[in-house]
Design a protein that fits this description.
single chain, seven-stranded antiparallel sheet, five-stranded antiparallel sheet, Uridine Diphospho-n-acetylenolpyruvylglucosamine Reductase, domain 3, Alpha-Beta Plaits, binds flavin-adenine dinucleotide, 30% helix, 18 strands, globular, alpha+beta, Uridine Diphospho-n-acetylenolpyruvylglucosamine Reductase, domain 2
Length: 462
């Protein structure tokens, strides 16, 4: 088939290796999200750079031709950040997946942006080190995508979000300029922290090409415990109880409402004899002597005696750890319960959470088109996820559900996005958690770094 090549493609093909530029038939089988593999990618071309120099060349040429670019990582993002049109050039970092260096004294790892998160875990582990960022999509998400979305996940409570785990970045700006700040130092007060500007910018300010990650000592003892709880306030009280007892070692504290737990756990043999209203999955990571495990048991016994929790089930083997975390992480099963879904990822101050959830559930119960309300999340971070299953995709119902979830957030000083970002899908709600002045400043930063508005146009802001 003869393809009409426009000036930008002609110039890209002149300077880049042939296998970097995919057009026409070569795009077959490509998509823009791991959950939409049957929907073909919309793009003028898909570019697979092999080096930072390639990315810089691509950006320079696109800049000269006013060519919009959409950046692809592992395609696991949940807010439409990688959605593209057939007029876009799509740049995927998948080939830039090398681990360049592991420095065991500085405890850092320097990687290309296309490195898959699970591969980073393995590489750190081989050196008795540990990279704490962890969530369900770790087998597909790339570190560049995690940085671009400031991913959170299961261990934020102890180790912070992605922005706490990054020491250095290399970024290519819209005009092709390479900003290299790949330092291994922890403290750097030499003016504005430019790296932090790019972390969480969702590909709208630059293309992240390399990163230096902060590693921790490997933690060999892992306790995973599922507990059953009667009421929500007890889940919050139990969190403080655990923090006081485990003094900083609690790394995850995940809550699941009963209906969510039942669907997620239905594929496995029953963990609990009795049913509970709430389930919390905890992780405690340490390097203490095996006797510490005994202490962990006594803490949970005390919690049962104090009526904070009803029941606790411990993982005793690697398989059981995987089973427990599989129940929490494999949330795709919840999507499968209804034909249409809406996903939410909100932040609410923990002292307001019970009231917020009660109000939201009460309003959602009145919407006939709703079949399921699945609620779960990172309770210790004040971050709840809702997956709302519906029997229709009608816009009016979508808006109503959005209004129910987002409406009360301003009053409690919450956020419409705790960790997934804004992308395309939450853009219209941004003013519910950001002031006019803040949005004005965001726009000025975009103008300064991407004056022609070519990178991920329409994501976060118009
Ligand atoms: C099952 C599942 C569970 C999840 N759990 C969590 C969770 O617990 N916590 C959480 O925070 N998130 C979670 N997520 C969503 C999370 O944001 C993404 O999984 C991840 O951070 C995105 O990485 P990615 O490589 O897939 O990026 P993509 O999805 O490919 O891209 C995401 C955004 O980043 C941009 N981008 C990608 N790479 C680059 C780059 N190199 N430079 C600049 N911009 C780039 C894209 O343009 C897009 O805007 C989950 C997703 C799934 C499917």
């Amino acid at each position: 088939m003869n393809l009409m090549l426009d000036a930008v493609l002609v110039n890209l093909l002149k300077v880049l290796d042939k296998e970097v530029v995919l057009i026409g038939e070569a795009l077959r089988g490509r998509y823009s999200h791991i959950w939409k593999t049957n929907t073909p990618l919309e793009a003028k071309a898909l570019l697979l750079p092999k080096t930072t120099a390639d990315v810089s060349t691509i950006c320079q040429i696109c800049y000269e031709h006013n060519q919009p670019i959409v950046v692809q990582g592992g395609l696991t993002g949940l807010v439409g950040g990688t959605v593209s049109q057939n007029t876009d050039i799509v740049v995927s970092l998948q080939r830039m997946n090398r681990i360049e260096e592991i420095d065991t004294l500085c405890r850092t790892m320097t990687v290309e942006a296309g490195c898959i998160l699970a591969n980073i875990h393995q590489a750190a582990d081989a050196h008795d080190l540990f990279f704490p960022l962890n969530f369900g999509a770790k087998g597909s998400a790339q570190i560049g995508g995690c940085i671009a979305t400031n991913a959170g996940g299961l261990r934020v409570k102890r180790f912070g979000m992605t922005r706490n785990l990054i020491l250095g970045l290399e970024v290519v700006l819209a005009d092709g300029k390479i900003i290299n700040s790949l330092k291994k130092i922890i403290k750097d007060n030499s003016g504005y922290n430019l790296n932090q500007l790019f972390i969480g910018s969702e590909g709208t300010l630059g293309i992240i090409t390399r990163a230096t990650l902060k590693l921790e000592e490997k933690l060999v003892n892992r306790s995973s415990v599922f507990v059953g709880i009667v009421n929500f306030q007890d889940a919050i009280r139990f969190l403080r109880f655990c923090d006081a007892k485990f003094s900083g070692l609690l790394s995850a504290y995940e809550i699941l409402w009963a209906n969510t737990f039942e669907v997620l756990a239905s594929r496995y043999k029953s963990l609990f004899v009795d049913k509970h209203n709430y389930y919390v999955l905890l992780e405690i990571l340490d390097n203490h002597s095996p006797l510490f495990k005994d202490f962990v048991y006594t803490v949970f016994e005390e919690a049962v005696e104090k009526n904070l929790i009803q029941n606790a089930v411990f993982a005793h083997s690697a398989q059981e750890h995987d089973l427990f975390w599989g129940i929490r992480e494999e949330v795709e099963v919840l999507n499968a319960q209804s034909k249409y879904q809406q996903h939410f990822d909100i932040s609410v101050p923990i002292n307001q959470m019970a009231g917020y959830v009660e109000q939201v559930n009460c309003e959602l119960a009145k919407v006939e088109a709703i079949e399921h309300v699945f609620c779960f999340g990172h309770l210790a971070d004040g971050n709840l996820h809702f997956i709302i299953g519906k029997n229709t995709d009608e816009t009016s119902i979508k808006s109503l559900v959005n209004e129910i979830i987002y409406g009360p957030l301003s009053a409690v000083n919450g956020s419409i996005s705790a960790e997934h970002g804004i992308g395309l899908e939450k853009k219209q709600w941004l003013s519910r958690c950001r002031t006019e002045e803040e949005i004005g400043l965001i726009k000025k930063i975009k103008d300064a770094l991407d004056p022609k508005h070519l990178l991920n146009i329409g994501k976060i802001i118009d």
